[in-house]
Structure formats: structure tokens, C-alpha cells
Amino acid sequence: MQEHTVLGKVALGYAPMINRQREVVATRLTVFPERPDTAPDGTALLAALQEVWPTAEAAANEPLKLSPRPLDPALRGARAPTARPPVTLNLAGEGLLRAVMTAMTAGSPATQFMIEVPAFMAGDAAIAAQLRQLHEAGNLLMVKGRPLQPLTAEVLSLFSHSIVEMGEERRNGEATPEAAAMRKITTVQAGARTSEEVEAAFLRGAVAVLGWPMDDAPPKPSSRGSVPSDVNTVMTLISGVERERPVAELEAVLKRDPALAFRLMRYLNSPAFGLSVEINSFGHALMMLGYQRLKRWLALLLASSAKGVNATPVMYAAVRRGLLMEELGREQGDAEMRGEMFICGVFSLLDRLLQQPFSELLPNVPVPERVAQALRGDGGPYQPYLELVRAMEQESMYDMRERAEALMLGPATVNRAVLVALRAARQLDG
Question: 116 is in which domain, residue-wise?
């Protein structure tokens, strides 16, 4: 990825947009200016983001999966109802939002970005004119919060969705003209943190949720159930790779589950892996990579073996945690440490994915002691990095800054790691 000086002037957080089927349909990227009294260059920021989400992709977006019914034609915007951008931009700060909107209206259309607009700004005549330009260019716009004054029907027609924070639902039910007008736009719920809150949001009629359903109570030892066969297979492989067992023995284990073997080959041949030749067997992979490099991809395979209604968003988080922690460790210049940080990030949600506490999982999944320390919450060199990643997931500017400073990582280093990891994760998702 190129060097972008603007990355030293912002802080980045990220979260998924999840539909009713618990599919991740887009990434929400929250951008904070490092100094609230200044607005970073909007054009430079878009150039950095377009390395992860290229403009060309806007013409080939996947189907919009937010709503089970077609949107009211008056609320669709210029974009076809069957297309969706891969990312929504939550630009924290009026100055930053104005700078990015100006860059988007002055330059080439960046229709791969959905734009979140505070309702109080949408009532401004100058902002409304820019919104109209973005709308006509094909951008999807989402309004969030409550307007200071009722928005006109013309302005409301520019928005495809209304973002509602947890706790605002009752107020949005008030019998006021502006509340009635806002209810005509489909709702995206923000701030849900547990499975119950996510389910409640969909029961209230939300078409999507922004955030991580990961704050459920941790699994208890008594909740342990039978381990799925594919999970057992991957655990056996990880154990065999850790002990450097013969290739024939490891291949025999993998042959028990052809579907699992297919998923592993898909990961190894993804653009994110960067191999110049196609991997066609486990033995070939071991020859090309060696035991330790292969172990990290088995970790990814284990995380993707989870089942359950909310497993997909948690797997989405686990993959990004691993890639981001590995990238944050690049400054150390130690390949072994980066590999362990990747495994630490992926496995940090393994208890929720497999519904077993780490006290039961760790004896069966061999990990280095430095990784086990972080997973148990006992400190060690990797726990501060894991806390930094969690702060990014929570889109907490104060916590992100505090964690990064404790690790002596500058904003540019952290933000570049975020974008590199998100780009690699998208390649794996494909």
C-alpha cells in the first residue's frame, strides 16, 4: 500500500453491517480527525481508502441484502436497487464530512462509498445541495439522528436508510411530523452489542444492524456440547502440524472431510495469500509454506468452522483481528512474532465461536504460551495489541489513542495497518 500522509491525521475504527440473515453486507469505517479543530484533506483521504475499495468495484457490487422487500422508489436514489457499495463512511466531525463531500462532488464519483449524514446537517441548504449531487451521481446516503427542524420531503428522498442508535427507538415513535417522515425510510440499527439486542432490532423492523454482537456473557464450562467433526479435524491437524507429523499422516486426517479440504485450498489460493503458484494438495501446501506458516491458515480454518445464527459476524471479526494484529506486529520485524499475533487475533474469539471457555479449549488447541496468556487475559506481549484492536472495533477514539500510545505506535502506522488488513480480509472473503 502507498504512503498517505493523511493517515497520520485521522484515526480509524471499523464494524460490520449485518442483515437479517446475519450476513455481513458491508463494512462501516469510522474516521475521526486526530485534531477536532482541523479537517484532513478529503481528496487525500478518499485516495487512501480507494486502495482498499477501488472505484471500479462500484459497477460490480453484490446484491443489496438489507431488506426483504424492495425499497420505495422515491427512497432508492439514483443507484439501482440491486447494487450495494462495500463500505459506509461514518465521518466523525462536521468539518471532515464537509471536506469529503466536497472532494466527492468535485472529483470522480466514488459510488463505492455510502455516506452517513447527521440529520442536523441535512437541514443546511448548502449541505442539501451537495447531497443532491451525490445522490444524482449514484451514492447511497444514510441519515442518522434527529433533525433540529423537520426535513423537507425533497431532502428526505435523498436518503435510502435512517440510522437509529440504541435507545432512540421510543423517541422515534413520537407522533411528530418529522418522526412520521423519518419512519418512511428503512431503519438501520446502530449500537446493538448482544445477540438479544440484534434480534430485538430486527423484530422492531430494522433492515440491518451496525456493530458487533459479541458482548454476550462468555460461555460457561457447563455449556460445553459435542464438538463438530470438522472442528475436531482442524484441531487434529493443528496438533499434527505443531508436532511436525509426516505429510502422509496429516493428509489422511484431512481426507476425512472433503468440504474442509476444499475450504483450506480456497484460503491458500486466495489473493490475500500472495502465492505465485496454485496449491493443489495439503502436501504441496506444506512443501511451499513449511509447518509454521501453514499453522496460521489452519487457525483461520478453525475459526471459520463455527456454526450458529450469529457466527458469521464473529468469524468476520476474528479474521480481521488476526490480519490486523499481524500487520501491527510488522514494526517488530520478527516473522515468528507476527505469526503468533495472527493466531492470537483469530483465536481471541474462539470461545464465542465454539461456545466453549478458553479453560477447555486451550488444552486441546496447541498455541504458544505468549498467545495463551493473551487469550486467558493474563497479560503478555500480545494483550496490548488485542486491546487496541478491540478499541477499533468499538470505534472509541479515546481508547484507540491511549492503546496506540502505550505501544508507541503513531497514527499513520496504526491506520495503514487497518487498511492493509481490511484489504487482505476482503480478498479472503471473496
Answer: 5-210
In a domain, 216, yes or no: no
Cell numbers given for 26? 458491508
Number of structural domains found in the chain: 2
Helix-helix angle 229-242:247-254, to 10 degrees: 170
pTM metric for this prediction: 0.84
Q: Fill in the amino acid letter for 161.
A: H
**Whether residues 413 and 346 fall in one domain:** yes
Nearest to 426 by CA among 4, 91, 15, 27: 27
pLDDT in tens, 89-141: 999 989 999 999 999 998 777 889 999 999 999 988 889 999 999 999 888 99
Residues 260, 408: one domain? yes
CATH number at residue 306: 1.10.3210.10
- Residue appearing with cell numbers 435510502: 160
In 24-166, beta strands by DSSP E: 24-33, 87-91, 113-118, 141-144, 161-165
Grid cell 479537517 in the structure block, residue = 39
Cα separation, 130 vs 126, whole angstroms: 7
All 3 cell numbers of residue 288?
A: 511451499
Per-residue CA distances from 233 to 114, 261, 298, 305, 326 (Å): 41, 10, 10, 10, 25
- Same domain, yes or no, for 159 and 258? no
Site of grid cell 486466495 = 270
Q: Which of 67-81, 271-285, 378-392 has the highest mean pLDDT?
A: 378-392
Write out the three cell numbers for 69: 422487500
C-alpha–C-alpha distance, residues 236 and 242, integer Å? 10
Residue 395, SS3? coil
Q: What are 262-293's pLDDT values in tens digits?
A: 888 887 787 766 677 888 888 888 888 788 77
- Judge if 198 and 242 occupy the same domain: no
Buried b (16+ CB within 10 A) or exposed e, 292-310: eebbbbbbbbbbbbbeeeb
